[in-house]
User: Fold this.
Amino acid sequence: MNLAQELGKAIGKAATILPPDAVRALEAAREREVGPARVQLEAILENVKIAREGKVPICQDTGTITFFVKLGTKFPHLPDLVRALPEAARVATKDVPLRPNTVHPFTGKNPGDNTGRYVPAVTWEMVDGDGAEVHVLPKGGGSENCCALRMLPPGGGLKGVKEAVVEHVVACGGLPCPPTIIGVGVGGGADLALKLGKMALLRPLGQRHPEPEVAALEAELEELINASGVGPMGLGGKTTVLAVHAEYAHRHPASLPVGIVVQCWAHRRATVRIRADGRMEVV
Ligand code: SF4
Assistant:
């Protein structure tokens, strides 16, 4: 079992092959649009095809590599997995190749391999079982720059949440390379709200939250944001977001944090499933 190699392949897959759910959403958007909006979506889909066929990155910004790991409490290869995560970033940076994007915030030094202090960032979630599921989410800088945290007065309730999200996403205009996918994290604390927003991006595109109240918020936000007319790449049109995914945590009664995570159309992801016997599959 060479975990770093397999995880490196998954990073490469994420960088070069846009997942089918994202492609389908872009194709559906193209069918809805006319004029410059349609031209933009045609160019995006052509870009996606060239990347897939040529095995080259979908975007010049190959992003910051982040991992979300669902770790079985009986998973027997944890030390190997911990070592493999940064090594996989090195492998993929060399093999794909990826643009080396990590820089030291004080010295400006770039290690050249997409690793560094606390990066690749890893979020661990303990689950039952003896396997592990590693989600790779390379996140581009342009869309990450549009993420925001709002600490709302709790009295504003869900109305306040909706206003904050719509106002923010519309104000971003074309900066995050729309049509975007928005992850909204409601509740928890400041840090958890943003984390929940990012975790919501991992759900298959357009799959609603299982709880009807949350699903209704997602649908309403999509409608409100798409009614803004920002459109693909900010050039006007019906499709500003491909989807809004929301997640929540219980909150302190005095706090209503809302994490707004913005992901560009290049919604790159891949997943590696690792079994206790060492078998792995990249999906
Ligand atoms: S926001 Fe996304 S599509 Fe735009 S440049 Fe960055 S990675 Fe590429």
User: Anything to note?
Assistant: Helices lie at 3-16, 20-32, 35-54, 78-95, 141-144, 157-172, 190-200, 212-226. The beta strands are 64-72, 121-127, 132-139, 148-152, 180-188, 241-251, 256-263, 270-274, 280-282. The pocket of iron/sulfur cluster is lined by residues 59, 61, 63, 140-143, 176-177, 264, 266 (CB under 6 Å).
